[in-house]
Amino acid sequence: MMTRSEPLDDFDLDDRYDQLAEDALYRQHGRMVNQVNRTKGDGPSRKEEIASLVEDNDLIQDFVPTYAAKLDPKHHERKWVIGSLQGFWVDKIIHDVLYQAKVGKEANVYACAGGDASDYELIAAKLYRPRMFRHLRNDAAYKIGRLTHNREGKKIRKNSGVERAMKKKSTFGQSLEFSNWIGHEYRMQKMLWDAGADVPEPVAHTGNAILMAFLGDQTIPAATLNDVRLDPAEAQPLFNKIIENMHLMLSLDYVHGDLSAYNILYWQADVSIIDFPQMVNATVNPNAEEFLQRDVQRIVDYFASFGVSADASDIASSLWRDFLNGRL
User: Fold this and answer.
1) Residue range 117-139, pLDDT digits in tens
2) Which of 112-121, 137-146, 271-280, 306-315 has the lowest mean pLDDT?
3) What number of helices (H) and strands (E) belong to the chain?
4) Among 56, 48, 78, 49, residue whose Cα is nearest residue 66
5) What is the pTM of this model?
C-alpha cells in the first residue's frame, strides 16, 4: 500500500553530515568530562568515573547498526546515523537501526529496534539535517509568540545574549535555533500524548534526533494517509477522529499549523498525527485561526474523495468558537 519516498536531489548530503556527527561526539565527550570534574561526595571516585567513560567510549566505537553497515564506511549518511544515535545506543534506548523508513527535506526517519531501557520493540528515530531551515517557508509566522527555550528546555531571558545571537543568525544563534525548533517539537508531542491525543509516544530527544514509538513492523513503516485508499466505511470515523484531535489541540491552546494527509500515519485501520515543530499557540499567534482553517480544509479535501461530506469553513469556525468560549 505504501511505497517509500525516493531520495530528493537537493539534499546536500555533504560534509555537514560528517560535521554533525563529529559535533555530537565532541559534545558527548565534553559532557562526560564535565561529569567527571563535578564528581564529589560518596559517589564513584574520579578513577572509577574515568574508567566508566573510557568503557562507554569503547562501546561507541562498536556501534555499527544494521542499516549503517550496509553503507560504505565513508558514506555521509552512515556517519550521520551513527553520530546522531550512538548515545541512545549506549543508554540502551535503542538496540539497532533496521532500515530507513522515510526521506524528507528536513529530516529522515529510521526504524530502530528498542533497547533494554525502552518499553517499545520498535522505535522511530527522526533525524533532522543541519540545513533543514532553508526548506521551511515563512517559519517566522509560526514562531510569533513562541517561548524560546535553551537546550535544557528552560525559558531564555528576554534580550539575553542567547536571544540576540538567534536574531543575528550567527553560527551560535543558528545552532540554538536548530535545537530550539527540535525541542519545541518534542515538547508539543509530549504534551499531546499526555493529553490523550492520537500521536506516537515520544521517547527521548537530543541534538538533532527525536525518538518516538514506531508505527509499522520489522520490514515496512506505516503509510502516510495520502498514500492510502480508504474503504468508504472507515473514512467517516477516521475523519471524525482527526477533527476531535484538532479540537483537543485547541483545548490545550494550540493549532497544528501544517496538518494534512502527508503527516497523518495510517496503520492497522487507525490514524496517528505526526510532525509538530510548527505548532502555534493560539492565544498569542495572530496567524493561528488562519492556520486552523487551512488545516481543516486540507483534511476535508482529502476525505471528500472517500465520500465524506463536510464544510471546512463551518468546522473551522466551530472549533475556533469553542476555543474562544473556553477562554471566557
Assistant:
1) 999 999 999 999 866 544 444 56
2) 137-146
3) 10, 10
4) 78
5) 0.75
Distance CA 181, CA 131 (A): 13
Beta bridge partners of 100: 110
Q: Which amino acid is at 317?
A: S
Which of these, 273, 297, 298, lies nearest to 191 by C-alpha position? 273
- Encoded amino acid at 35, one letter: Q
User: Which among 222, 270, 209 has a CA at the least distance from the CA of 245?
Assistant: 270
Residue with cell 524528507: 104
Do strands 223-224 and 107-114 pair parallel, antiparallel, or not at all (unpaired)?
A: unpaired
CA distance between the termini of the chain: 46
Give tens-digit pLDDT for 24-83: 444 444 443 343 344 445 556 655 554 454 444 444 568 999 999 999 988 889 999 999
At residue 209, the 3 state secondary structure works out as strand
In degrees and rounded to multiples of 5, residue 261 shows phi and psi of -65, -10
